[in-house]
Write a structure and sequence with these properties.
By secondary structure, the protein is mostly helical. The protein has a single domain, classed as Large-conductance mechanosensitive channel, MscL, domain 1 (Non-ribosomal Peptide Synthetase Peptidyl Carrier Protein, Chain A), CATH 1.10.1200.120. The protein is built from 5 helices and 4 strands; from the N terminus they run H-H-E-E-E-E-H-H-H. It has a two-stranded antiparallel ribbon. Strands 2-3 form a two-stranded antiparallel sheet. Strand 2 and strand 3 form a beta hairpin. Helix 2 crosses helix 3.
């Protein structure tokens, strides 16, 4: 039972829960990016390249063996077009994360660069400043003559 208690303490820590939320949001974000690439970017790339569909590009290592309509041995292929599309997915995700981190860093920098507003001097501080200025004026070379 001690191990269950220890596991519960581990699982309920704030950073573990934050990480779990990050994983769920990351998975959803990955689906959004995949849809963006599959449904918007790659069709436009296909039109720009004369109707090519990258998911159809592959290098066939071994053709399928057929017996009529029945597949005896499936085709063995390297689907490099799908790989290119996955790289585009990655680049978009990486760019979005870069922009988000850059934005967060700018906010942090602004927060640390902004000096705290100076508090108004108290009455005692004003009097001490006046006394200091008077003493400086008395000890200046012009007043010693």
């Amino acid at each position: 039972m001690a191990i269950l208690k220890e596991f519960k303490e581990f699982a309920m820590r704030g950073n573990v829960i934050d990480m779990a939320v990050g994983v769920v949001i990351g998975a959803a974000f990955g689906k959004i990016v995949s849809s963006l690439v599959d449904d918007i970017i790659m069709p436009l790339v296909g039109v720009a390249t004369g109707g090519m569909n990258f998911t159809d590009f592959k290098w066939v290592v071994q053709k399928a063996v057929m017996n009529g309509q029945e597949i005896v041995t499936p085709e063995v292929s390297l689907n490099w077009g799908t790989w290119v599309q996955t790289i585009v997915d990655f680049l978009i995700v990486a760019f979005c994360i870069f922009i988000m981190v850059k934005f967060i860093n700018q906010i942090r920098r602004k927060k640390t660069e902004e000096p705290a507003p100076a508090a108004a001097p108290t009455h005692e501080e004003e009097l001490l400043t006046e006394i200091r200025d008077l003493l400086k004026a008395q000890n200046s070379p012009e007043n010693k003559k």
